[in-house]
Amino acid sequence: MSLPTTPLARYVRILEVLVSCPQGLTLTQISQTVGIQASSAHRLVNALCEIGLVDRRADSKTFVLGARMERLCRLAVAPPSVIDMAEPELHELVREFSETAYLAHLNGGSVESIATAVPDDGEMTYVQPGRVMPIHATASAKAILAHQKPDIVHRLLSQPLARYTDDTTTDPQQVMQELERIRQQGFAVCDNELDPGVLSFAVPVQGAEGSVRYAIGISGFSQRMRTKPVKEVATSLRRASRTLAAKLQQFHMV
Amino acid sequence: MSLPTTPLARYVRILEVLVSCPQGLTLTQISQTVGIQASSAHRLVNALCEIGLVDRRADSKTFVLGARMERLCRLAVAPPSVIDMAEPELHELVREFSETAYLAHLNGGSVESIATAVPDDGEMTYVQPGRVMPIHATASAKAILAHQKPDIVHRLLSQPLARYTDDTTTDPQQVMQELERIRQQGFAVCDNELDPGVLSFAVPVQGAEGSVRYAIGISGFSQRMRTKPVKEVATSLRRASRTLAAKLQQFHMV
DNA sequence: TTAGTAATTTCCTATTATCGGAATTATTTT
DNA sequence: AAAATAATTCCGATAATAGGAAATTACTAA
Q1: Domain locations in chain A?
Q2: Domain B82-250 listed as CATH 3.40.50.970
Q3: Cβ contact A37 with chain D strand, < 7 A
Q4: pLDDT per residue over B119-128, tens digit each?
Q5: Which sign does the torsion angle of CA A24, A29, A34, A40 carry?
Q6: Which of A30, B33, B36, B113 reaches 20 to 30 Å from B212, CA-CA?
Q7: For residue B131, is pLDDT > 80?
Q8: Is the shortest CB-to-strand distance from B2 to strand C under 7 Å?
Q9: Nearest CA to the C1' of D17 belongs to which residue?
Q10: Of A208 and A83, which is predicted with more confidence?
Q11: Which whole-number Å values give the CA distances from A224 to A58, A220, B53, in the listed order?
């Protein structure tokens, strides 16, 4: 193992030595293993400590990998998925409204629920991960559709629109009108259009350059959902959407 | 996110930005995200490339985490086990002798086979991972026992020693004598003492301060094993043992 | 193709961090 | 308590860095 020559190389060697020794190393052990002077090791290790890459243990004698380094490594090995990033927001919505919260995803020509969070009371829920959301009869799909390019919308609405309940909108023109309303008010509603007696709200999740591939929503039985102030629901959904959008952007996942 | 001030902090910010973007980033993206000049980003990223922490992709425009960084992160998240480290040596032994090679481990008062490598011809093998190796009737356990403190040896040999074949040594005194011979010749033999018709060789794996908790051995049917020059077998086992011992020490696992 | 723009790379010097020997202080060990 | 070992501080010579500017290269659009 050639001796590290540049400052950066020394830092890295120290980290590698510490990685290979989870129980920690003393300063002298580090300086000898890496092959640098004790005074240098002291300074370098302290610099690593200051930015959180290394921690000095409570006994104040041994050094171990710090929280920042561990987070970095965990992310590098297993990058968080969209679902991972959405989970905190979904749980927050559940906490707030005690209804099922879900994340939907536009994949090819169909929208699918990919993550859900349910209230503790574990009541039966209609939206489950993997469920395909008909584009004309779910809040999430409509929220997403409302922000697709016109040609895509036309193509998707040109296929037959199935009827699920008396309230299902099966006329493409009417759906188009609803998409316009969704764009204006910023959230989508789905009232008894797919699952009988179920009312849902959803908002789009803004991606880069205005693209929308995800929607966040909550869903529950009409009688309970109606008691919730629409304005509050919309505000909370938008907050969740914004937070998730920021995370996605941070990780360049949009 | 405060701007990085020290050189080290900048390197780390660059790595963090790259971690959060597995598909790669261009120099400008990096310099803007981190908040440093393009020229600085260029130099820093190149320095990271030179030591292998970052790779420039084939398209020569985007940068991704390098092999060294990935190795570092993988090790930090999931430190390699003794088994991982022993595997190359076991396979080397299999390649050389075309017999089953195995790693045994002293755990509490019993020795257990914890890893095996078998020849390609996939012949039935007696030693399988998890098998408990009787301390008086297997080469690996005897190799380990021969290097334990006298009081431990006495305690282990004071319990009844089961008979498995006509050749099983069940007299503690005789076992003690054999341990002495093992210490002298440096390897242990087990001939038809546990599994009928099976002959094994094993050597201890030296840990820190002369402690021994592992043994490496090969095992096979007597008729074939007898054809192998004992000296060569012993030499190869010792080489494997030394290599593994070095790795264990490097990772402070002994 | 040809401008025109953006991104990348090189160059440069003031600034800053590093290196490591030596001295000092703290901690063990004997 | 004395000696030995480890940790920390200090400091001047050395080396790396920062970032502006300029040169080069790659991309874009007319």
Answers
A1: 7-76, 82-250
A2: no
A3: no
A4: 987 666 777 8
A5: positive
A6: A30
A7: yes
A8: no
A9: B7
A10: A83
A11: 52, 7, 54
